[in-house]
């Protein structure tokens, strides 16, 4: 006999836990309030510092090939997307999106982070959306700070998906997080005892309660009075799945499932962009993971939702313009943002081009940023959810000047 | 003050029916310098042996490619496959032995510290076989050095071939070195890579908030040029790729003639820097005590570090002798490896069981679940290792993954499960809370009872 954890029981549990609002994401009702608007926003953090000019290649700049004797050896006409730009072969499956106006780029963009070029600081600043590093322990992410401006936002409005900690969605506003690899089953008696035991630890209890709700949302029940052998088989099956290494597709599926429903914002990360050596080979794998992810989301969302969706792919910094002595690139400054989705005014490259001549580089080594990556994110949020510019400039990104609308979205 | 149960839970590898718990701080400390019994009983191949596998594999692969389409091709193909198979088996044994050490040890503090330093000096190989060389690196560079001076540990880790490959140092060449100039003459680029230099300053010694600049990173990277590995995958110093001229790091000038001594000097100076004393002290206190440790405990470690120029035994003694270390509230959440290993130790799943468990089952019972709990074995995201904060680990998916594992793994590993009531007492000793005792008693069957004890906040925190 199977039994799904009912909502009443679940909410009952959260009140038994007696958590404070700050400690528990369960104080806001789950799945009940209406969703704010029908636009969707997905932010994908590309961890490791993606080499923007290898991904979106400025063939029109004469210095490009000179600076990169190995990395920019051959120009492939099939991958040329504008008179000036080509794309890396790892993105070739996305070219139909470009032609359909569902794929765009921002060139030479960056966070305000400059000289230390540390991944960890760079990612923190990107996700915190600040000018400097915030003091440790008091960090929040800009996507989380957006939530109070969305009327009717509930916990399920925003989802952090996957194994990684997303600072981007961390903060005072309640959000959900889940890794679609986990499945859970417990007898109804076991469930009651777990509930009882977790009363002594509000943090753990809240996480566990949310886990049970989420594990139940994928179609399998959580409370499951099954045989011992059945339980073993389940665990082995889950382990086998995880071994196949297609986690990014599961994440894409889960994100799409939530966004088809009441969720409006999802965020996760794809890593593997730190290409200090042999970049030519090393960049293919993350680019195909990214392409597969975007295409899968498009497929799973369906046309109607896809047309209301914006995907922003951002990285903590770009890489040095010159390739280094080991056919790779080191941590640099100006990078590239990739945008996809039916809501995007695609088929174009946004942002100014600073040039690659020595005198035009930042500190003689990096692509000079011509825009603040936060401004693009702010316009995407403005156009998606109608959040006023003043709120974005002060509340979400303290002290940001968004400038005039670039017309990022349709 | 000192309490053997807390000592095992907070600083050790958890309570055990079998191993004798340390009965004093003195015993905990002297255990660190005694013979490494676990390394002897459950060996992990040191890098110096393991690297032969990588070398032979690379050679066989090269010969295989060179003989493509020729009659000998299959011979090299078989040789290549045999080496890879062997390396996989050895890796499985290392993984198993990592758990066995934690299950059987009577000096759990040594295991915990080894993991702490392994994490501090995160390094991973990049090629297929080298990816499995973390254990061998730790066995050689980290484990024997955890009770000496920090500078010796630092030098051993930084100059290790695995670290030199992981952070791209092995190929870095001074832009004005002989080799780079010769390459330039032929139209090729060979140059500097700042990865290792940056991480040494940011992660391994001073910490990111210390006052170093991009110029220091660059100068240190130039000073490091020459640190490399040879064809045998052993450490070597190549003066031909070393950048000529003097370098200045943090205001200190290092001699014009580049040498290994210069590099050791700069590492010793970084190790003795006050910012390093603070960085290491904070990190130890955060790891063992709390995400927000008492300022007084950090100050005590820092003072011990500075007074002794980084004698780690003095720092550990300061930690164990501080009253904050014996506070009875368990705050830190065990990380997945600690969680699983303490669970197996409490369940008394020992050598006889794990050594007859097939490789494939070990993967399904331990390796994959640890990944799903957020800590893929020896594969942290970057050189900063595993996140320390509780908030990283207490999330719905990680908590669910722990419960999911606690339900299935004990049954997979033990034919007869213990009575949950007895198990609760074995796992938590005098620290067994009343609600957990009640739950163990009220569970419908043994396996759920045990899973609940393992998932209890009392068991999950240390």
Keywords:
heterodimer, A: about 400 residues, alpha/beta, nine-stranded mixed beta sheet, two-stranded antiparallel sheet, 14 helices, about 35% helix, disordered N terminus, B: about 450 residues, mainly alpha, 25 helices, globular
Can you give a write-up of this model?
Chain A contains 14 helices and 13 strands. Chain A has helices at residues 7-17, 52-55, 62-67, 95-99, 119-128, 142-146, 188-197, 202-215, 228-243, 247-260, 279-282, 284-306, 373-385, 389-396, and strands spanning 2-3, 40-47, 56-57, 86-87, 103-110, 158-161, 176-178, 223-224, 265-271, 309-315, 335-340, 349-350, 371-372. In chain A, the strands form three sheets. In chain A, strands 2, 5, 6, 7, 9, 10, 11, 12 and 13 form a nine-stranded mixed sheet that branches. Chain A has a two-stranded antiparallel ribbon with strand order 1-8. Chain B has 462 residues and is mainly α. In chain B, strands 1-2 form a two-stranded antiparallel sheet. In chain B, strands 3-4 form a two-stranded antiparallel ribbon. The interface between A and B is large, with 69 and 74 residues.
Layout of helices and strands, plus pairs?
The complex is a heterodimer of chains A (410) and B (462).
Chain A lengths: L1 E2 L3 H11 L22 E8 L4 H4 E2 L4 H6 L18 E2 L7 H5 L3 E8 L8 H10 L13 H5 L11 E4 L14 E3 L9 H10 L4 H14 L7 E2 L3 H16 L3 H14 L4 E7 L7 H4 L1 H23 L2 E7 L19 E6 L8 E2 L20 E2 H13 L3 H8 L14
Parallel strand pairs in A: 2-9, 2-10, 5-12, 5-13, 6-7, 6-9
Antiparallel strand pairs in A: 1-8, 3-4, 5-11, 10-11
Helix pairs in contact in A: 1-8, 10-12, 13-14
Chain B lengths: L3 H8 L13 H9 L3 H5 L5 H20 L6 H32 L3 H13 L13 H9 L7 H9 L2 H6 L11 H8 L9 H10 L9 H11 L2 E3 L5 E3 L9 E3 L2 E3 L5 H13 L1 H15 L6 H13 L4 H10 L14 H11 L4 H6 L2 H14 L17 H4 L2 H18 L6 H9 L5 H9 L3 H10 L1 H4 L2
């Amino acid at each position: 006999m199977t039994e799904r954890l009912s909502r009443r029981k679940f909410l009952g549990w959260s009140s038994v836990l007696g958590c404070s609002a700050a400690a528990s994401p369960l104080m806001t009702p789950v799945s009940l309030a209406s969703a704010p608007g029908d636009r969707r926003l997905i932010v994908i953090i590309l961890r490791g510092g993606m080499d923007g000019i290898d991904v979106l290649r400025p063939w029109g700049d004469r210095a490009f090939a000179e600076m990169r004797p190995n990395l920019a050896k051959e120009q492939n006409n099939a991958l040329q997307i504008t008179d000036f730009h080509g794309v890396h072969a790892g993105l070739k499956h996305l070219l139909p999106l470009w032609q359909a106006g569902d794929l765009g780029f921002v060139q030479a963009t960056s966070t305000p982070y400059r000289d230390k070029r540390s991944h960890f600081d760079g990612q923190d600043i990107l996700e915190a959306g600040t000018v400097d590093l915030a003091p440790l322990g008091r960090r929040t992410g800009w996507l989380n700070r957006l939530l109070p401006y969305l009327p009717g936002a509930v916990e399920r409005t925003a989802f952090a998906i996957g194994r990684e900690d997303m600072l981007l969605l961390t903060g005072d506003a309640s959000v959900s997080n889940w890794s679609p690899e986990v499945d859970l089953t417990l007898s109804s008696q076991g469930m009651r005892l777990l509930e009882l035991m977790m009363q002594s630890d509000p943090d753990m209890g809240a996480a566990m309660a949310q886990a049970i709700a989420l594990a139940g949302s994928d179609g399998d029940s959580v409370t499951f009075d099954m045989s011992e052998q059945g339980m073993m088989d389940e665990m082995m099956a889950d382990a086998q799945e995880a071994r196949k290494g297609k986690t990014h597709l599961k994440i894409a599926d889960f994100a799409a499932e939530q966004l088809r429903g009441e969720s409006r914002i999802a965020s996760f990360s794809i890593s593997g962009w730190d290409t200090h050596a042999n970049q030519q080979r090393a960049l293919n794998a993350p680019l195909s993971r990214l392409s597969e992810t975007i295409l899968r989301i498009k497929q799973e969302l369906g046309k109607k939702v896809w047309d209301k969706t914006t995907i922003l792919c951002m990285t903590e910094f770009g890489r040095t313009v010159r390739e280094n002595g080991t056919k790779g690139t080191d941590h640099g400054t100006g990078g590239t943002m990739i945008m996809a989705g039916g809501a995007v005014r695609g088929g174009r490259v946004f942002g100014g081009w600073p040039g690659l001549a020595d005198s035009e580089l930042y500190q003689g080594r990096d692509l000079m940023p011509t825009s603040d990556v936060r401004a693009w994110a702010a316009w995407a949020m403005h156009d998606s959810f109608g959040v006023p510019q003043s709120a974005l400039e002060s509340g979400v990104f303290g002290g940001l000047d968004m400038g005039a609308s670039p017309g990022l979205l349709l | 003050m000192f309490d053997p149960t807390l000592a095992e839970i907070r600083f050790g590898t958890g309570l055990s029916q079998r191993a004798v718990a340390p009965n004093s701080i003195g015993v905990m400390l002297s255990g660190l310098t005694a013979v490494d019994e676990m390394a002897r009983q459950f060996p992990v191949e040191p890098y110096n042996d393991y690297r032969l596998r990588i070398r032979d594999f690379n050679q066989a692969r090269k010969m295989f490619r060179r003989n493509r389409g020729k009659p000998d091709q299959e011979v090299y193909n078989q040789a290549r496959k045999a080496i890879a198979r062997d390396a996989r088996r050895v890796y499985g044994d290392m993984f198993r032995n990592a758990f066995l050490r934690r299950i059987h040890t009577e000096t759990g503090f040594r295991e915990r510290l080894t993991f702490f330093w392994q994490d501090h000096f995160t390094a991973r190989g990049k090629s297929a076989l080298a990816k499995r060389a973390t254990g061998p690196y730790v066995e050689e560079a980290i484990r024997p050095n955890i009770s000496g001076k920090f500078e010796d540990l630092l030098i051993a880790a930084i100059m290790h071939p695995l670290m030199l490959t992981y952070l791209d140092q092995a190929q870095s060449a001074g832009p004005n070195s002989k080799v780079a100039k010769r390459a330039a003459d032929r139209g090729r680029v060979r140059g500097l890579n700042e990865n290792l230099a940056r991480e040494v300053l940011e992660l391994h010694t001073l910490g990111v908030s210390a006052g170093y600049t991009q110029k220091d990173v660059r100068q240190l990277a130039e000073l490091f040029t020459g640190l490399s590995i040879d064809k045998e995958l052993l450490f070597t110093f190549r003066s031909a790729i070393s950048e000529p001229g003097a370098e200045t790091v943090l205001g200190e000038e290092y001699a014009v003639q580049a040498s290994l001594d210069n590099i050791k000097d700069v590492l010793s100076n970084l190790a003795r820097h006050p910012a390093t004393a603070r960085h290491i002290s904070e990190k130890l206190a955060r790891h063992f005590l709390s995400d927000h440790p008492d300022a007084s405990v950090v100050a005590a470690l820092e003072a011990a570090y500075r007074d002794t120029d980084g004698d780690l035994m003095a720092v550990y003694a300061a930690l164990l002798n501080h009253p904050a270390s014996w506070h009875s509230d368990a705050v830190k959440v065990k990380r997945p490896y600690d969680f699983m290993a303490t669970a197996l130790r409490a369940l008394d799943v020992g050598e006889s069981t794990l050594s007859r468990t097939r490789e494939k089952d070990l993967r399904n019972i331990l390796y994959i679940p640890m990944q799903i709990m957020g800590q893929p074995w020896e594969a942290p995201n970057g050189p900063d290792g595993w996140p320390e904060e509780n908030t990283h680990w207490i999330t719905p998916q990680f908590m669910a993954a722990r419960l999911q594992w606690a339900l299935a793994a004990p049954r997979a590993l033990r034919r007869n499960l213990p009575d949950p009531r007895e198990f609760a007492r074995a796992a938590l000793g005098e620290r067994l809370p009343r609600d957990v005792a009640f739950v163990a008693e009220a569970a419908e069957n043994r396996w759920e009872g045990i899973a609940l004890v393992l998932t209890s906040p009392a068991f999950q925190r240390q």
